């Protein structure tokens, strides 16, 4: 089995020892706090068993912020290690583990859940629905993601982290070259989280296609709903490839098969091929919803309808199709030959066309608009130039012949950080500032938000801009140190200083949440930004049933036009109130998440029999669910009336109540 | 539906015809293995299309357009993933593993 039991807990590294102590203390603190405040039942009833899309979304976002912290710490450790030549802060092995977990966590456990969290909160509201199509499945998606994320995170204190890069290329990731269990965590934890993502994808496709409110045709959907629909379709198309690839990896590592090994007729580069067949669409899975967020934010704060709506939709669908056709550009240097590399160079450059169309649409939306520079809008404004740098360097990398020079250098690392940080991180921050009042009923502090914005954007540029030049000078990625003679010292130092500014920005963000939680004004209306789409046509925070009467839509930006024409859609009359059917809470998704986590953990340690026994629990849960005839409950008229009066009768509210 | 199900009967007959044609080509001819595979593979695709339209209601109901879009998208993905992988992993057909 290759497991050394005396190395079950990672020992001997003061950094990890510190983390272990911190984890134990935090867990004790949470348990003690919940017991002291008598909040265990509250936690179970209101959160762990919830099937409410808004609460599930909030749990996704909280997890994503925690994972952002974890991944960010990894980044800071790497920057500290490379801040000076020949630094002896981290060992080569520790550095390998850290860049691996940084990549996996930031993409799969930060970017994806952050976006899926925002989708969960916003999409049913934006299309005028009362929940997603399958609320309990939605909870299962979350708990599987959470279970996978926790399993992956536990690796650095128990058993050792994966160390073959976030791409885990074979043959390095195979048993021959990585005999420890670290890479088992990669195979198993990502599989569990991946099932959750796939279920989310299916859920949102069905929700958006089947649950739009009356009058909301596809071409009247807000742009974020469109990008979520297309993203979900890409998820359904691409994630099964990853499922299969991880399955084959698991067989190779645990059961001695030879799909990707060097010996026994395996094809090591087939892993790279399958990984990127999923991995490239994955880039668009995180980028498209982010584009949707920017579209909403820019339209709202320019006080204009989105420019070129139809061309935007065509671009998104075009990007979705092209995203499946470019995967080889991640491994041009495999040397597949001129024909293959040329075809993929061309398809890759083609993607710049629809992306460029979108970029101009955003610019033209702002043109002649009355722009308000709120924090959310600032993120969208900064996105434009930063993302263009990422995009243009992407076109440079797209040329197969030129890529032989750039490949595996920090130029590439700088490029994808310039794509993913403005393209995704700026977007989730914009989305969070924008939709925060919808989730919690108060605004995040704008002044602190601007500190957060400026520190983060400046820090980001100072961190990653030098990496372009380092890469052009020949600094390779994933190298834990460099010599004085290389001449890289100054740029590396600048980059490390930039990461400190970046971290300061994140710290201000955390403080902003704390400050706003304590001090922000709770007396806000349902529509604090004078926005355009239906999620603002209901209370902030949103009542459990979303809408007392489902809004009827007759054009794009429906809510904006309702406000302009003082539409009766905005008023609620007592006679319009009906009983509302709601799904019941369920503990099953949470329990399944735990069983998946346990089974996965046992599988990581190659205790096959115990893992199989735990897996029986998963099937037991499926059977229990099959015999679940509980079909929900009704919220009574009186309760709806009371809830609606409470927010609609508030001063300044555009949605009114008529008794 | 009280009318005689002429579509179903025709579909059934055509399916039988295509199946026997495939069996005949595989068992009764002396073509090369590769040719036989291509012919019966082609007949299988024709029969799949036939059954989709004759028996599986793909052209009926308000969802008929989206059903075709789904099928075409599925075919697109399958071709990209399978044929694309083979093409790339054989280095554009110049390299045999």
Oligomer: heterodimer
In whole angstroms, the N-to-C terminal distance of chain B is 56 Å
Q: Average pLDDT across residues of chain B? A: 86
CATH superfamily of chain A: Cytochrome c oxidase-like, subunit I domain
Quickly name the level 1 CATH class of chain A.
Mainly Alpha
What do these coordinates show?
The complex is a heterodimer of chains A (659) and B (97). Chain A is mainly α. Chain A has a single domain, classed as Cytochrome c oxidase-like, subunit I domain (Cytochrome C Oxidase, Chain A), CATH 1.20.210. Chain A has helices spanning 14-36, 40-48, 53-81, 92-126, 135-154, 182-210, 223-255, 268-302, 309-323, 338-366, 375-398, 400-406, 410-440, 446-473, 489-519, 558-565, 588-604, 608-626, 637-648, and strands at residues 571-573, 580-582, 633-635, 656-658. In chain A, the strands form two sheets. Chain A has a two-stranded parallel ribbon. In chain A, helix 3 runs parallel beside helix 5 (135-154) and helix 7 (223-255) packs antiparallel against helix 8 (268-302). The model of chain A has no long low-confidence stretch (mean pLDDT 93). Chain B is flat. In chain B, helix 1 runs antiparallel to helix 2. By secondary structure, chain B is an all-alpha fold. Chain B contains three helices and no strands. Chain B has helices at 6-28, 33-54, 64-89. Helix content of chain B is 73%, strand content 0%. Chain B has two domains: 1-56; 62-97. The termini of chain B are far apart. The model of chain B has no long low-confidence stretch (mean pLDDT 86). Chain A binds chain B through residues 237, 241, 267, 269-270, 273-274, 277, 321, 324-325, 327-328, 335-340, and chain B through 73, 76-77, 80-81, 84-85, 87-89, 91-95, 97.
Short note summarizing the structure:
With 659 residues, chain A is mainly alpha-helical. Chain A is 66% helix and 2% strand. The mean pLDDT of chain A is 93.
